[in-house]
Amino acid sequence: LSPGPKSLICVQETSPVLLTFQLTQNGCYLVRIIMSCEDGAGKVVEVPADMRARDVCQFLVYKSHCLDDNSWSLVEHHPLLGLERCLEDHELVVQVQASMTSDSKFLFRKNYDKYEFFRNPLNFFPEQMVAWCQESNGSIPHSQLLQNFLNSSSCPEVQGFLYLKTSGRKSWKRLSMFLRRSGLYYSTKGSSKEPRHLQLLSDLEDSSVFTVTTGRKLHNAPTDYKFCIKPSKVRSECKELRMLCAEDEQSRTCWMTAFRLLKYGILLDQNYKSPQQRKSPVSHFTTPVRSVSENSLVAMDFSGRTGRVIENPLEAVSAAVEEGQKWRKRGQRMKALGSPSPLQPSSLSSVIHRTQLWFHGRIRREESHKMIMQQGQVDGLFLLRDCQSNPKAFVLTLCHHQKIRHFQIIPCEEEGQMSFSLDDGSTKFTDLIHLVEFYQLNRGVLPCKLKHPCTAVAL
């Protein structure tokens, strides 16, 4: 790199990227970022040895001018092994890369459930799987559940049944397992916890937990809820991998989340509570990185020479109603002047949704499931796509309680005016953007509000 200010890479939110590394003569690591959706050409950005995963994400977020909502992540991806995991914000990127093969790569992706267990711990830790909850008989408040995992002096334990793949074979064995700070154990005699019956399967300090991306049939897995514990020193030796399979999504999430908490402890809490207090790689830039918050939105009045913040809630509501009436009158005037009908394919209302990050066109149901799962199965994660069975309709894919549901959006025609509805015409919208904005504020017939758009960043 030439002397002077360091150049960064511009990565659009709609462009998937993969990262590979290279060592320079002066000991600095360079990250080669390849735009995998285009011609494969790459650019280089300098990554110091002490740069953390969160810092790299902030570099990419800053240059792409997108919102930094603390959900961006670097994903360690091993295509030959079919494994991937999100790096923790505090992990050193260069250190992680040292244990990767030339075929491995980093992906830049949204991960909304990275810290979701801090907000909704009961969704991640069923009482029947946490021994501490069973021993207390419900007498200890659930608010102390996470503190029990974060406190290094406590002895939490997650227990349950998992399928373990037999080494060198495709057969699986159902075993009673126990996850503690010292490691993951299985019982050689039923569900016995006696020390003589417990066998160490994997430790936590020198291992990481991965999601298995390959198909169920490849591993002859008994269920779809696979995960893997990979020793950090292991690169491509499949015999050292601990392939596991849970009975449902909730138990798999519990095992993987508990593994992270027991391994990193208070570091995860610090990452969640004070992301801006760490060393920031963009501190020398004059323009701050944008952040988004539901509480940062205010009503503005631009009727005068200068804009002002509307502090009175009643005035804000009145201004919103007045603005809506203006838009309706403007639409009526445009219609009277002979503007194109919304029924025409060239009309703006029929295509404007295709500019939105949450719209993914003609993708299949299986692809929408994959994208939701990659970006975290949190309540309110959604995307819109074309309906495969009805070419005029659309489908809203929504995640709620770790389950993915689909709602068909039907076009409605009334007096020559086209509208869209997902509740059989009870609530109608002139275009899909208005529909999404409404359900972001109101749950309506949906199980929850639309909260997180599933963007096209994920590979």
TrEMBL record:
<keyword id="KW-0963">Cytoplasm</keyword>
<dbReference type="InterPro" id="IPR035037">
    <property type="entry name" value="Grb10_SH2"/>
</dbReference>
<comment type="similarity">
    <text>Belongs to the GRB7/10/14 family.</text>
</comment>
<protein>
    <submittedName>
        <fullName>Growth factor receptor-bound protein 10a</fullName>
    </submittedName>
</protein>
<dbReference type="Pfam" id="PF00169">
    <property type="entry name" value="PH"/>
</dbReference>
<feature type="domain" description="SH2">
    <location>
        <begin position="358"/>
        <end position="454"/>
    </location>
</feature>
<dbReference type="GO" id="GO:0005737">
    <property type="term" value="C:cytoplasm"/>
</dbReference>
<dbReference type="InterPro" id="IPR011993">
    <property type="entry name" value="PH-like_dom_sf"/>
</dbReference>
<keyword id="KW-0727">SH2 domain</keyword>
<dbReference type="InterPro" id="IPR036860">
    <property type="entry name" value="SH2_dom_sf"/>
</dbReference>
<dbReference type="Pfam" id="PF00017">
    <property type="entry name" value="SH2"/>
</dbReference>
<dbReference type="InterPro" id="IPR000980">
    <property type="entry name" value="SH2"/>
</dbReference>
<dbReference type="InterPro" id="IPR015042">
    <property type="entry name" value="BPS-dom"/>
</dbReference>
<dbReference type="Pfam" id="PF21989">
    <property type="entry name" value="RA_2"/>
</dbReference>
<dbReference type="InterPro" id="IPR001849">
    <property type="entry name" value="PH_domain"/>
</dbReference>
<dbReference type="InterPro" id="IPR039664">
    <property type="entry name" value="GRB/APBB1IP"/>
</dbReference>
<dbReference type="GO" id="GO:0005158">
    <property type="term" value="F:insulin receptor binding"/>
</dbReference>
<keyword id="KW-0597">Phosphoprotein</keyword>
<dbReference type="GO" id="GO:0008286">
    <property type="term" value="P:insulin receptor signaling pathway"/>
</dbReference>
<dbReference type="InterPro" id="IPR039665">
    <property type="entry name" value="PH_APBB1IP"/>
</dbReference>
<dbReference type="InterPro" id="IPR000159">
    <property type="entry name" value="RA_dom"/>
</dbReference>
<feature type="domain" description="Ras-associating">
    <location>
        <begin position="27"/>
        <end position="113"/>
    </location>
</feature>
<feature type="domain" description="PH">
    <location>
        <begin position="155"/>
        <end position="264"/>
    </location>
</feature>
<dbReference type="Pfam" id="PF08947">
    <property type="entry name" value="BPS"/>
</dbReference>
<dbReference type="GO" id="GO:0046627">
    <property type="term" value="P:negative regulation of insulin receptor signaling pathway"/>
</dbReference>
<dbReference type="GO" id="GO:0030178">
    <property type="term" value="P:negative regulation of Wnt signaling pathway"/>
</dbReference>
<dbReference type="InterPro" id="IPR029071">
    <property type="entry name" value="Ubiquitin-like_domsf"/>
</dbReference>
